[in-house]
UniProtKB/TrEMBL annotation, chains A, B:
The lineage of its organism: Bacteria, Pseudomonadati, Pseudomonadota, Betaproteobacteria, Burkholderiales. This is 2-amino-3-carboxymuconate-6-semialdehyde decarboxylase. It comes from Pigmentiphaga humi. Belongs to the metallo-dependent hydrolases superfamily. ACMSD family. The keyword Oxidoreductase does not apply. Pfam families: Amidohydro_2 (PF04909). GO terms for molecular function: aminocarboxymuconate-semialdehyde decarboxylase activity; hydrolase activity; metal ion binding. It is an enzyme of class 4 (lyase). Residues 3-330 form the Amidohydrolase-related domain. One of its GO terms (biological process) is secondary metabolic process.
């Protein structure tokens, strides 16, 4: 059993639909003649070349078959979040995207599972949409790791996390809107440098602020890309917490003690990195996630885990499927 | 033999001296009554509490004795760089700081070794000062990892690196002026999240731009804090290079092939992180570095390396001293 819990889709949104969100920045999909390839667009600017598995569930299912993926948990491509636009435009947008995601998954309801998106800039609306999405068939919510200058320690965002804990709505936190600005113009540096830092910042914002102390332990929260640079930098963070008062002031426990409060996916692309990740997080807190269908994802889904030296068969089964079944409540699909 | 190659000092600069560099941002040292503690200041704003080993070589030598450190390589605290000020003010400032560093080291010329600073915003002046500093007794130069929006792939900065390669001037690259801005106001997040990202960005700027192809292989360049998040993210970078054309366009080799072109220090604070670092870099490219005398440094200098599972005695000797002797040309001090 192989469950890939980190995959993205992008519906065939027209330019007109995107313009209702934002005339000059709304994301839409331009499909090339033949229907096999296309571009994610922002107004008239190409954002990323893509291919049909991103929007066509049948193309996707064929690839899942070829890769031996039994179940895939799919969520929005982060450019669809819309957090930067007016809340009154983003609630209907999120609802529409969430309904389209369920349509996408309806092609194979036992194999395709959706996570919703929410208008995080309006916490009340975000809580309502998370609950509505759950009621309509979503298995959780994906959020970005921040909202402008507000990171996950922000009072409103903590309220949203508390809501998800109370309603048993699992969360995937994905980096987006990457720091670094003009200094990362080439070579996809925002994806290589800023995304791991964003994810680490998201985790540390929950730990060092003491937010984890105020959020129910029942919260199911997973960070993408193996938690970014978090696991490798944790020794530096623990050392800093021990020796500098201003780092411990809001965080009563050693930062590494909070690792049991969250999950990560397995998308780290290197056996040494995965070994360290497993030591830091435990194999019971890592879930197979590929970042499909993008070129920066794992191209042979699950190969790294399958070939990981030192992992027992039980470790591999947990990472491949068992942890995700528990986290996302997929018992009815695998039972 | 234990050589600590990552340590900082800050001379007893007066507020008046600092004002000659910048009236509202010049860094200086306010020493408390009793002379044992103080504050690094920017104009009238406290920047960081410090203690006498930062400016008093005799206090430092007593700590080196207690820690069993035979030789220490010391460089400016990055707030002293002055890269943001007018070049004509920064050249004399850098010269003065470099002369003060030699005075500091003169307290124990066989045990304290200095790295210079240069006015990097004026590449000609930076090259001249690097050469002058070498002639006056410095064993290399410390630079910041960027200069505003210019990273290490910037043409001027590459010219400086080429100069250092040609003149056999070893370089330590230290993160500073950290990305993230308003989002990292508390808990020293710039030191925990942005510094590792800055260092990774510095390394990737040399790799992905193809700059390493244009710089002589003789360049000796070392990145602080174990290279930041570089080693852990390298799998992601290699994978991205393989599968996305815009990442390989200026970089002819797999990014991991460039690891042999640079060194890192050992300041990673965790055995799992150090093991991964040694796998990625080789134990011949790691040098003991503590970030002394700051609370975010290794408090028991060399303990992590000494107790590292899997390191042979030869590995430990190389990291403790052998690699630094070769890198900085310290044969006359240890022979």
């Amino acid at each position: 059993m192989k469950i890939d819990m980190h995959a993205h889709h992008f519906p065939r949104i027209t330019r007109e639909e995107a313009a209702a969100l934002s005339a000059d920045r709304g994301p839409w999909l331009r499909v090339d003649e033949g229907g096999k390839t296309g571009q994610i667009m922002r107004a008239d600017r190409p954002f990323r070349p893509v291919y049909d598995s991103l929007w066509d569930p049948h193309a996707r299912l064929a690839e899942m078959d070829a890769q031996g993926v039994d179940i895939q948990i799919t969520c929005a491509t982060p450019i669809m979040f819309g957090y930067e636009f007016a809340p009154e435009k983003v609630l209907p947008w999120a609802q529409r995207m969430n309904d389209l995601a369920l349509e996408f998954c309806a092609a194979a309801p036992k194999r395709l599972v959706a996570l919703a998106q929410v208008p995080l800039q309006d916490i009340d609306a975000a809580c309502r949409e998370a609950s509505r999405a759950k009621a309509t068939g979503h298995h959780g919510v994906q959020i970005g790791n921040h909202l402008g200058d507000r990171d996950l320690d922000d009072e409103g965002l903590v309220t949203f996390l508390q809501h998800c804990a109370n309603e048993n709505i699992p969360l995937l936190v994905h980096p987006w809107d990457m720091m670094g600005g003009n200094r990362m113009k080439q070579w996809m540096l925002p994806w290589l440098v800023a995304m791991p830092a964003e994810t680490q910042l998201g985790i540390l914002s929950l730990i060092l602020s003491g937010a984890f102390e105020r959020i129910p332990e029942s919260l199911k929260i997973c960070f993408a890309h193996g938690g970014g640079s978090f696991a490798f930098m944790l020794g530096r963070v623990d050392n800093a917490w021990k020796h500098r008062d201003i780092i411990r002031k809001d965080c009563p426990r050693l930062p590494s003690e909070y690792c049991k409060r969250f999950y990560v996916d397995s998308a780290v692309f290197d056996h040494g990195a995965l070994r360290l990740l497993a030591e830091v997080m435990g194999t019971d807190r890592i879930m197979l996630g590929s970042d499909y269908p993008f070129p920066l994802g794992e191209q042979s889904i699950g190969k790294l885990v399958a070939e990981q030296p030192g992992f027992t068969d039980a470790d591999k089964r947990a990472i491949y499927a068992g942890n995700a079944v528990e986290f996302f409540g997929l018992q009815s699909l695998v039972g």
